[in-house]
From TrEMBL:
It comes from the Bacteria. Keywords: DNA-binding, Signal. InterPro entries: Competence_ComEA_HhH, Endo/Exo/Phosphatase_dom_1, Hlx-hairpin-Hlx_DNA-bd_motif, RuvA_2-like. This is ComEA family DNA-binding protein. Residues 1-23 form the signal peptide. GO terms for molecular function: DNA binding. The keyword Amino-acid biosynthesis does not apply. Residues 36-55, 66-85 form the Helix-hairpin-helix DNA-binding motif class domain.
């Protein structure tokens, strides 16, 4: 009988842990994100993240996520993989 409460507790803990594993990651605002944040995007390494920041500094804020394709090395496939992760908000 003493095993039942322990087993129930373990089942509860495992279900809580698996629910955290499926949580949606927060969207990344490409107008304010730094290099360390941008590398969290799929297919974006440090050099591409630096290129995004440099493009933003030279050309101003992005008006849409699709404008990210203007950055050298970033194509449609990268945009598709990150469609749910990218947001564009004012830098104010």
């Amino acid at each position: 009988m003493k095993r039942l409460p322990i087993l129930a507790t373990l089942v509860l803990l495992l279900s809580l842990l698996t629910s955290f594993a499926h949580a949606n990651p927060a969207a990344i605002n490409i107008n304010t994100a730094d290099v360390a944040t941008l590398v969290e995007l799929n297919g974006i390494g440090p050099s591409k993240a630096e290129a995004i920041v440099a493009y933003r500094e030279a050309n101003g804020p992005f008006s849409s996520p699709e404008e990210l394709a203007k950055v050298k090395g970033i194509g449609e496939r990268t945009l598709e993989k990150n469609a749910d992760l990218i947001t564009v908000e004012s830098a104010e």
